[in-house]
Amino acid sequence: MWSFSNIANNLHKWLSETFNPTMTLIIEMVLAGVAVIGLFAALGLVLVIMERKVSAWMQIRLGPNRVGPKGMLQSLADTLKLLVKEGLTPNGADKLLFNLAPFVAMIVAMLLMAPIAFAKDFQLWDLNIGVLYVSAISSIMVISILMAGWASNNKYSLMGAMRSGAQIVSYELSAGLSILAVVVMTGSLQVSDIIHSQADGWWIFKGHIPMVVAFITFIIAVTAETNRAPFDLAEAESELTAGFHTEYSGMKFALFFLAEYVNVFIVCAIGATLFLGGWMPFHIGNWTQFNHVMDYIPSSIWFFGKTFFLIFVIMWFRWTFPRLRIDQLLNLEWKYLLPISMINLLIVTAMAILKWHF
Amino acid sequence: MFITKYIKDVYKGVRSLLVGMKRTLYYFTHHKEIITQQYPDNRDTLVLPERFKGEVVMPHNENNEHRCTGCQACELACPNGTIKVIFKNELTPEGKKKKAIDKLVYHLELCTMCNLCVEACPSDAIKMAQTFEHSVFDRNELTKILNNPGSKIMEGVE
Q1: Domain map of chain A by residue range?
Q2: In 3-state terms, what secondary structure has residue A342?
Q3: Candidates B21, B31, B38; nearest CB to A57
C-alpha cells in the first residue's frame, strides 16, 4: 500500500545502494531539509488562506474570492507581493540583530519539525526525549521576538517583545504541566512510544476528565505561546501598531508571519500527537468492522486531519474572543490555569499509579 | 467562601466563552447569513438599508411645485454651511410682495449626511435620497441647486 514510510524506505535503500554511508546520510539530510522547507511554504500558503476564510465566515463576510477559484490563490498573490517588496532596515536599528531575528524564528520552527511523526513510521528524528525537546526548543521562540523588538529601536516593538516574553515564560508552565499529564500516563518522553500507547484509544478518551482538562489547558496555553488572539498582546494592532514586527517589511516580515503559522501547525501537531493519538486511527473498543474501515484511511490523513482540526479550533478562538489586557492575561495563567493544571497533574498521577485509566 | 467563588468564576468564564464560540460556529456553518454586498457586481439588485443617507434632495410634484417656504431653518441647522438659501421677491396677485426661494444651494462636497436639515425643516420640503455614486471629475458639479428651474411653492404650504 502506498504510504510515506514506504517511499522513505525505498529512497533510503536506493541511496545506500548507490552511495557510501556518509554520502547517503548527507543526501538524506539535505532531502529532509528541502522537504521541511517545502512543507513550510505549503503550510504558509494553506494556513493563511484558511485563516482568512475562517475569519471571514465567522464574521459573516465572504473573505478573499477574486484571485483564482473561489479566491484560493490569494495567499500566493500575497506572497508574490511580499517577495518584491523592499526589506528595509531602519537607520537606528541594530543591523545584525534586526536581520538575524526572523531567521532565528524560522530556525526554531524548523528544529521543532524534527520529532513530529507525520505518518506511520515517518518521522525525522525519533529521539527518546521528544516531548522535552519540543517544549525546550519552543521557548527559544521568545528570543527571536525579543531580538526583533530590541533591535528595532522602537518603543512599540520593545513593548510588544516584553509582553511576549512575560507571556511565553508564564504560559510555558501550564503547557508543560499538561504535557506532563500525558507523559505520566505513558511513562515515556519518546513521541513514537506516546503514539503507540494510544493504539487502543486516544488519551483524551482513555484518561477520563483529568485528560480533557489537561487538553483544554494545553490548547489555551499553546494559543498564548504562539502569540495568537485572544493572547496576541505581542502584536496587538490596536495598541502597538504591530508590536515586535512593526519595523519589518517585505520578506523579513513574511518570515515572522510564516513562523507564526508554522508554530501554530507545530503546537497543533504536538497536541494531536499527545492527546488525539497522532497518526493512530480512531478505534472503538471491539467494533472490529468499524476499526477495519478506520484502518484503511492512511495514517498521514489521520495525522493531518487531527492537526487541522486543532488549527481550526485555535482559529475559532481567535475570531471569537476579544483580546485580554496584560494583567488579565497573567491572572488567567497564574491564578487559574497553573493551579488547575497542577491539581490536575496530581489527579493524573494518582490515576496512573492506581491504573484507573482504560 | 473563596473556593466556591473560584469555581463559580471558572464555570461562568468557560460558559460565556462557549456561548461566544457557539455563535461564531453558527455563522461559520450558515453562509446564508453573510451580509457582504459585492457592490459593483450587484449594482442592479443592491438593497440599501432604509435609513441609508446619500444626499439631500427636494421632492417636486408633477406641477413642478415644492414645499420650501424659504424659512432658512435648514441653513441655520446645518453645522458646516452646506445649505445656502437665496431669495427673490414675488408679487402675489393682490400686489403684495412675498418672499420666496430663488435657489436652494446645496454643497454636497461639504455635507456630512447628518440629517439635521431634514429634521429642522418645518414643512418637509427636503429629504435624504439613497443615491451614493457621487464621484465627478469637476468639484463644481457637487454644488447643486435643489429646486428645479421655474418651480414654485406648493399651494397651501406656509
Answers
A1: 85-354
A2: helix
A3: B31
